[in-house]
Each structure stands twice: as C-alpha cells, then as structure tokens.
C-alpha cells in the first residue's frame, strides 16, 4: 500500500478529487496518511478532518530556523510512513532537503502545459491570464515530478483543453481544473502500481509490477 501525504494551501478541490477517486475504488493501492498545509485556515485541512484523515498545519513561521522547519516536515512525513508526496495547490516551495529525501517521489499538478507558463510567479489565475495574453488556442494541465526548480521536473501526465474565443481567465481556469481533477488521481494510480520510473531525467511508464 502506498501511503500518500497531500500538501495544499487552499480550498482543497484537487484533494477532494483524490478522495473521490479512492471512494470510487479507482486507487486500490493507495491511501492518504497525512494532509499538511502552511495555512491554518486552509479548506484542505477541514476536508481532511471531516474524513478523519490526520491533518497538520506546519509553517516556516512557526520555527526559529529553516532547519527546524524542515526537521518538523520530515518528522511528520516519517511518522505517517510517507511513500509519495502530492502537492495539490501548495503555494510554497519545498525545501531542498525534503526534495532530496523524497527524490522522484514528489508530484505536483500545474494548471498549464509545461514547460510553457511555468516557473516562479505562474500560479493560480496568473497562469490563465498569461495563456490568454499570449493568444494560445490550447491550454491544459500537467502532473510532474518535483525538483529544486519551480515547475521543472519530468512530466508524468498532461492533458489539453481548448482555449475558446470568449474565454476569461476564470472560465479557462474552470476548464483546466476539471483536467487537474482527472490526471492527478491517475498519476497517483501509476505510482501506486509502481509503473513510473525516472530514467535520465525522463519519465518511463511501464506495466504494473506484481
């Protein structure tokens, strides 16, 4: 069984999509062991508590040093036997020591077709504003491996959506969010089935391992 820790900063719609997939029997090899947020009032924590899932508020502001903060993060992850970290709307950059400890075992969902419209400053509605400003006719969402650069790691899954002539950032965001809700649980399923390998910086998806 793959134990997942989900990190989020906001309302938790992608986390709900994961829960829905689990409740539908689509992720039999995975379970959520911990939900963690840097925001004490985040909706994702309330959803976790409503489902009796351990929920923790851990913020760098609570600690005297970055080292102490990272120690607290890792202690929480170890305590719940984390095998995969899923960033679902987490608005903070993961410390390098966490990325190194869970190398190739951290994924993020991003509301654009990476490598376009990724990097520092490209989050939330800003991504969709940039896509429209660039005159793109296609957008989408990406699940990728997390490394030490923003939105940079190897791509696990992508799915496109059309950009319509009358789209606003809000309408495009809603269409892309529906894609996020599909591909993030699917990526988790691939990891739970041990089908994902990172080879020379690229993703290879194979058959499920017995």
Shape verdict: globular
Q: How would you classify the helix and strand content by structural class? A: alpha/beta
Number of domains: 2
Which strand order do you get reading across the main beta sheet? Answer: 3-2-1-4-5-6-7
Assigned CATH superfamily of the largest domain: Formyl transferase, N-terminal domain
Measured on Cα atoms, how large is the radius of gyration?
17 Å
Based on the structure given, which CATH architecture of the largest domain is correct? 3-Layer(aba) Sandwich
β-strand percent reads 15-25%
- The CATH topology annotation of the largest domain reads as Rossmann fold
Q: How are helices and strands ordered from N to C?
A: EHEHEHEHEHEEHEE
- Describe the main β-sheet briefly: 7 strands, mixed
> Roughly how much helix do the residues carry, as a percent range?
25-40%
Q: What is the average per-residue confidence, as pLDDT, rounded to a whole number?
A: 95
CATH class of the largest domain: Alpha Beta
Q: Number of DSSP strands?
A: 9
How far apart are the first and last residues' alpha carbons, in Å? 12 Å
Low-confidence stretches: none
List the helices and strands and how they pair.
Elements: E1 2-7, H1 13-23, E2 30-37, H2 43-50, E3 55-57, H3 66-79, E4 84-87, H4 96-101, E5 106-110, H5 125-133, E6 138-145, E7 155-162, H6 169-192, E8 196-199, E9 202-205
Parallel strand pairs: 1-2, 1-4, 2-3, 4-5
Antiparallel strand pairs: 5-6, 6-7, 8-9
Helix pairs in contact: 1-6, 5-6
């Amino acid at each position: 069984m793959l134990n997942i820790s989900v990190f989020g900063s906001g309302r938790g719609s992608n986390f709900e999509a994961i829960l829905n997939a689990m409740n539908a029997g689509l992720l039999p090899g995975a379970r959520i062991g911990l939900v963690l947020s840097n925001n004490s009032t985040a909706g994702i924590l309330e959803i976790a508590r409503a489902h009796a899932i351990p929920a923790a508020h851990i913020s760098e502001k609570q600690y005297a040093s970055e080292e102490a903060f990272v120690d607290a993060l890792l202690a929480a992850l170890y305590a719940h036997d984390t095998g995969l970290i899923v960033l679902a709307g987490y608005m903070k950059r993961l410390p390098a020591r966490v990325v190194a400890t869970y190398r190739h075992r951290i994924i993020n969902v991003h509301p654009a077709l990476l490598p376009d419209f990724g990097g520092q400053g490209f989050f939330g509605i800003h991504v969709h504003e940039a896509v429209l400003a660039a005159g793109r006719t296609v957008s989408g969402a990406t699940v990728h491996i997390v490394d030490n650069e923003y939105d940079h790691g190897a791509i696990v899954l992508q799915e496109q959506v059309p950009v319509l002539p009358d789209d606003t950032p809000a309408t495009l965001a809603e269409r892309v969010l529906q894609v996020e809700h599909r591909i993030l649980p699917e990526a988790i399923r691939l990891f739970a089935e041990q089908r994902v390998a990172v080879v020379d910086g690229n993703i290879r998806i194979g058959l499920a391992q017995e």
